[in-house]
Amino acid sequence: MMETKGMLSGIYRISEKVMLIAYTNILWIMFSFLGLVLVGLMPATVAMFAVMRKLVIEEEQVPIFRLFWTKYKEEFGKANLYGYLLLFVGAVFGLDVMLFQSLDGLPYMLLSILSAGLMLVFLVVVLYFLPLYVHYELTFFKYIKTAFLLAVTHPIQTVIMIVSGIGILFILLLLPGSLFFFSGSMYCFIVMKTVFKVFGHVEGQKELLEGESRYGEYSI
Q: Could you tell me which residues come within 8 angstroms of residue 216 by beta carbon, excluding any fewer than 6 positions away?
């Protein structure tokens, strides 16, 4: 009987978390369109990561909507600034890859491979950037530096995030009806879950993470 109750309790907790993840995804889509996507996507994504942070550390009774709305408003300007800076850098890398691929010759092929490698490193840095942003108070370049250091010093977790992203994308394509509920939040949850294990390894290393928790004092 005790085993049955424990199993049912576990199923309930998982079901509840899945519902909260789906609800957060709906908010992410709604608030992205609230800002006409162009200025809404970045703060909505930051707000989504802030909510997933709360779910990952398993704080009880997280007020999803209030937390999402608060972070959306608070981070609106900075999230757009940082987001478009990263988007610009990513676009430059992408254009470099396409340019070198369009040219003939061994040097251009090597440059194309190099650019593609840099593009991959940049995307991984962005994966770490967002969890760092919602958890620590750092400067922009400190976020970039720390994200890069975490990515290269924790290759297993980095690979897990990349493979998880590919797997979730494949599932969403097979089940397009789930896009509305899990297109962003499910991967966001996995990224936060993975990165928090990394944070646990480096919390005591002041030379790596000198900033204090960004939202640790947020009252729920």
A: 135
N- to C-terminal Cα separation, the chain = 35
d(CA 31, CA 71): 11
pLDDT digits (tens, 9 = 90+) for 150-176: 999 999 999 999 999 999 999 998 998
Cβ burial, residue 69 (10 Å; 0-12/13-18/19+) = middle
Higher pLDDT, 101 or 27: 27
* 3-class SS of residue 136: strand
How many C-beta atoms surround the C-beta of residue 149 within 10 A? Answer: 16
**CA pair distance 101, 149, nearest whole angstrom:** 29
* 42 within 8 A of 84, measured Cβ to Cβ: yes
CA dihedral 217→70→79→214, nearest 10 degrees, is: 0
